[in-house]
Amino acid sequence: MSLPVRATVTARVEAVTPKGDERLLVEFLRVYRDSIQLVINEIWGLSEVPSWTELHNMFYGRLVKMGFRAHHVSEIYKRAKEVVESTRKNNGSKPLLKKLTARIHTLDYKIDLDKKTLRVTVLRDKWVELKLKWYSYLNKYLDGSWRPGEILLSYRCGRFYVYITFHRDVVFREPQAIMGVDLNFNNITYTIIDLNSELVSIGVIPFRGLSRALHLRRLAEDLQKRHPRSWRFLKWARRTRARWLSKARNILVDTAHRVSKKLAEVAREYNAVIVFEDLEKIKENNNGGKKLSCEKTLWCYRRIQEYTEYKALLKSIKTIYVNPARTSRKPPNGKKIKFINYRFLQLGDTVTSRDVVASWNLALRGLQQMKGSWVKWSPDGPGSDAMKTRTEPGNPEAEKYLKAFTAIHK
Q1: What are the structural domain ranges in the chain?
Q2: In angstroms, rounded to a whole number, what is the distance separating the alpha carbons of residues 158 and 100?
């Protein structure tokens, strides 16, 4: 039996405070930010970042005199150390904090999920009560399986926001299949095999998010070309450009959510482990020309993988990553492979796409990684069944494969 894994989700809720308590809360957030900046300023010039014990000896007395509680102080240490270490790792200059944000320990707040209220401790052990503007979709975290953790309190544009973290332990299911996933610019192809490396199903999830985002980005670039020197000073041009780019980003995020949700549902249907390509430095690779380089900048493959991994975790489905080298060129069933063009190929007596071959090989490599030994191929299955696309209504990619197969064999 596998060990439990902690799943965490963060819910953002707007909060309202009484007029008298708003000043106390803003003052607390400002002093909290300045205290983190104080710690950063004093440890930035040191050759090594001090440990938590060293930070405690250096700053505990000074911060307690400012009115903080013990857990406030420990969160200030932690945040300052995280900022310094991440900035040095990226070779950045000394950070300067501007946002009014505070990380609150579980012992420093009390939340009533029935009344939708939150009480937070501020300076000198004073308590401030906030009324949460609850949303109906957050009720799924109130079923008893999720437990609240630390919260993040933020103040910007005259409004308070509370980021509540909920967590629960998840135990992975015992898998009955392996699903290899091949990510492309306009579709996602997946192949499902059982634990004996026998083919179970093949499917395609088409999407147009990348092409729509590229169109909006080109509109923004054409606007800058028409006004190369004055677009920054034209109010309508800045607003139009910002609107197009914001819409393009929203399209990519929505596409990633929709596709990842579909992948997680298919994996749960077959109780399959999801196998992704371990893609690295794709945007730095200049192969493919100018058009492909433009598409790479908007290709949200990392976001799709992360969203799918998280949604699968909530469904107790495991996700693994394998090396994708030569997955679209190697025959997955031991039969002879012949390339027709850049997209289609002939595998034995069957015509299919390179995406299908790649996802099939990814599934086999995932099975090999799970078993820890070489997997035997299974070339005994009939060719017509091996390349049969998952039947879904309105699947244009599947129709293309079937049309190509029919045209070549006429």
Answers
A1: 5-170, 177-209+266-409
A2: 11
